[in-house]
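Fold Annotation — chain and its backbone

Encoding — discrete vocabulary of local shapes
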Amino acid sequence: MEKFDVIIIGAGPAGLKCAETLGNSSLRVLLLEKNAEIGPKVCAGGLTGKDLAFLDLPDELIEFRYNQIKLHVNGLSTTINTGNDFAFTIDRRELGQWQLQKLTQFSNIEVRTNARVFEILNDAVVVDEQPIGYSFLVGADGSNSFVKRFLGFPPRNRGIGIQYIIPTERYRDFEFFFRPKYFAAWYAWIFPHRRYVSIGCGAFRDVIAPADLKRNFQRWLSDRHIDIGNGRYESFPMDSGYEGIRFGNIYLAGDAAGLLSSFTGEGIYQALVSGEEVAKMILNPDFEPVKIPEVLETKQKHDRLIQMMIDAGNARSLIFSVGALLFKIPRFAKKAIEAFG
């Protein structure tokens, strides 16, 4: 049986960062991606300042930079402007390909695409009916994580995101829309890209059923007179149910670990941080994560905030409206941006 020291399932930001951190080590590493191409993912493609600081991305990969965002709460609109860029958009294919290119310098890392894992055993994974042995397994395979299910954790705190990718240059503002009537405790967004715009929304399944969310989204699009005739419809799960990182010789990272923010939907930074520190734990059993505890602390705050909004029921509109008014105060707006971005 073919054998690797480390097998990483999923070549998203977490899996790619984990592989990069294991580069030039004495470990033989296999990175498996079920899709034919690394990078493309159903995602709005928004980044925060934390992502840029961590990745040190080249300027040409960043599509748009924003020092302001527009917030809309029912009929009330406000603009948050701190004077410094804090929100960015990027094409997920380009991000993935850039991360992948960094792996070519390492002789101990092998990457395989079109490699769907059909079965996980205690010491091997089965790909195309062939078992491949491992000493360590990393599940970086997203919110529908096969590795997480193998560990016995059912999906929980499940959200759903839906969006249209529309080829247009009409939209250039970074915008969020809070309409409790349609999206309950969550929101809709407009994220501009160079050749298209992502217009989408999200909610939790136990608050709004997916079919109802899609219907509400269509009504909101109609209210805004947004033409989706040439748009591509996409949907994606969001699992913010954190169960842990290390389980013996098996690790979870990124969305697979449930590190996604239940309040903002952000997940790329958490994926990068956890991918790096999981690799460091594999390289050194005595390594104590530094950034993962910080991510978890922020996540707990976000979980409490979203639960408060869910419990608020009919008072959500009032709470969102008060928040929009507070954002008009520069000091408050700056603290909010620092906390979330």
